[in-house]
Amino acid sequence: MKTTLKRGIGRGAAGNRNGRAVLPPNGRAKPPVTRYRQPEPPRRGFVSFLARAFAWTLICVATAAIGVGGGAYLFLHHAVEEVSAQTPEVRIAAEQLDIALPGQPAIALVIGYDRRAGDEEAGIATRSDTLMLMRADPLTNAVSMLSFPRDLVVDIHCPGEPVKTLRINAAYEECGTRGALETVRTLTGLPINYLVTVNFRGFTQVVANLGGVWIDVDRRYFNDNSQGGERYASIDLQPGYQKLNGQQALDFVRYRHTDSDLFRIARQQLFVKSFRAQVAANFGVTSLPGILRVVTDNVEVGQAGGPLSVRTLLSYGLFLHQLPGGRFFQSKIEDLQEHPNYDLSASRETIQAAVNEFLNPDVEAGEKATATALGLKPKGPQAPPPAQTTVVVLNGNGVPGAAADTSWQFKERGYVTLSPPNGLAADAPSHDYYRSKIYFDPGQEGAEAAARKIEGLVGDADVEALPMDMHLRERAGDAMVTVVIGQEFGGTLAPAPVDKTPQKQDPVVTERPDLTEPLAREAQGQVPFPVLVPTVLEQTSRPSSSTPLRVYEIAGRKTARFTFVTGASEYWGIQMVRWPQAPALADPTRKVTLKGRTYDLHYVGPRLNMVVLRENKTTYWVVNTLRNTLSNETMLEIAQGLKPLGQ
Fold it and tell me: In sequence order, what DSSP letters do the residues of 555-610 get, joined into one string?
């Protein structure tokens, strides 16, 4: 850089142009600028210093956040590109999907397939081990699952080919992703918005990168292929609550050696539920990149209209993270008929019943089931049945006949529909309502609860007390609920939730401390907490012959697991450990107090999956069978039968 100083130009230059400064004759340089202060400012105090420091801290944090946010934004975009459908097969199938509407329920078809290296060269077809529908409903904050047994015989729909009748897992083997999509869509009649394909070869990596998944293993699983004979997948798992690594989790969900495909489905659904809990527990700004990386390396997601957006990915991630306890529902096809060669069949009626339950999970199932089992009044205000609910429907969107058509649909659902009194037109104050409004009469008992129940039928709507607007009040008349149809309403009421609340029944139990007290004494000598004796058992149950008691460590803590088997060869257990924050214990559906003890109740739909007792600084929990076959009353009676040794 050139300067005037080096060129001998300026006030500091000597006449010889050597570029060196020359001082005044007295040797003291005068400052080029003189500063004056009038008056002298006060000295800054400690508070002022803290305020400035805090302000600069905020500026630094904001700057860092902008940088991190920018990096996260770029990372998310990259992650979305990676997880979006990459293979031509999935992209072509995604073109046939239905577009998901914002804020509305969405359905994904999950295809788990087994593609090994070298299969294609060897002429071995790729196998589909899992076909599962998952539905996320932001209107009710619920997730429901519907799995299809791989041996279920159905019509296979391959594009451009005649219909064949084969096992449902043959759809993927015969004609790939699109064949599986068309077969499931034809079988259920459901719109499908997303395709999720998972390679089981990458399944182990997904679980491993997540750090494992905590799962309650119901019994001893063992198979060793080293001795020859009929070959099944190797597996070696002990019963009890534990963290499974990738290979162990794969072995667990694919096992079907000594039981049927129905139990295999139950294990798969248990894994999905546990996997969601594990992701939710690890969800955060610092862990999100790792979670996304796990998914993007092994999963493809297809949707209609192009690749996924960052907004879509984050919205579903947050939805699952914030899902309330007891809002995970497992639907299944009932009354399956068994045939030679392990084939299964189901009537059209039973499949449709499973679809209806999948579409309309009863979010109050746990509350109602508890009230039924214990003879309690359900918590909170209860909606009267439709036959006792009067409804007036008004047109707020300007679509001709919208009010009359919707009123007729309410009548079909069993509601008592009324017309506006005195011959008034069924019109709202205007036809500019975008969102539907559901107004309740605060002077009528149960009206608000009835309005909130109707909200589930209408969809995205606002529930409010009937305002003082005379136009609305004149038309509402004596109705308990007034519905104003807005532009967002699609024209069709959703089906009512399927009420699966079990009928109250006596607990099926027997007192057998003679079978369990020796096990409890054996456990007490090995653990640092008071062991409770399971004095009450399900009537047909006995301690498992293979591993009735297991004492081991989980998360560095000693734990005892009692395992029992029913007369129908289904397994249930009791876990004891000093670990109040175990992932399985998060988000109970309800708490109840019985005979001075407080229990956390965990439901899967209307079935009581787990009863948790906390005392002696220890957590004791009774866990149902894989298919939750023990009745709610039986589960509660077993939990109440836990007693101290020697009592």
Answer: TTEEEEEEEEE-TTS-EEEEEEES-TT-GGGSS-SEEEEETTEEEEEEEETTEEEE
